[in-house]
Structure prediction request, 290 residues.
Amino acid sequence: MRLLTYAAKKKGAAPRVGVMLGLDRFMELRFPDMVSVIRSGRAGLAKIRNAVTSYKGKGIALSSVHVLAPIPRPSKNVFCVGWNYLEHFEEGAKARPQGTELPSHPTFFTKAPTTVNGPYDRIPLHAGVTEKVDWEVELGLIIGRGGINIREADAMKHVFGYTVINDVSAREVQRRHGQQWFKGKSLDGHCPMGPWIVTADKVKDWWDLRVTTRVNGVVKQDSNTRHMYFKIPRIIAELSAGLTLEPGDIISTGTPAGVGHARTPPEFLKAGDVLETEIAGLGLLKNRIG
Prediction:
């Protein structure tokens, strides 16, 4: 199933939750928010499936509402994995003061909750703060069942579903804080996400999904999740070691090669650009810059 969060196209409209019925229509669900759906677990998903099966209406046109990020304001930071595709690790080596030895453990960082942005909303440039806004297509996963010290063998039981994320990054800000990436990764609106969550039962081949970024229609990144260095079970196991993961937690699993700062000459997003972020079988984000 594809589960979305949306609001009416009027100022101050409250977010609501729905389930897609087809390509461009959906029905509203009787849950207060997406995290409530996630917390409801298998029983809640079964009720949604039954509601869809018995639904006789035409549904609501997607174009008639404002589609929000599936979890518009997470309760904690978005967890992220750096250097998780070998080619991306290699292309970024010239910007690192340390060596280029491949990591033996995942590199974790986070993005503030205020970075989360809608799948079709504008991405702010933050003029005066950064002049080097870059793109990073990433597979996002949503934790369903919480836990701590989760074993790799059990990790996939904790995945509720998947979404599309772009880990938009302010490169010079990212580099200037002692190689701590948090600030450069956490400018407001720099984490477009969505357009929905595809439940895990509908994504059997998470290890074989094409991931692409386009800027003004030009392909900048084109890879596949099969090239992840650390696979999802390892990511969940290492992240949850001594750290409790909770329903609705978001993990962004890293980006492949093709980012702007590693190009010759470097390329960065500018006002008016259209950034498209797509993962086959999951969905497409389309965000104008500025």
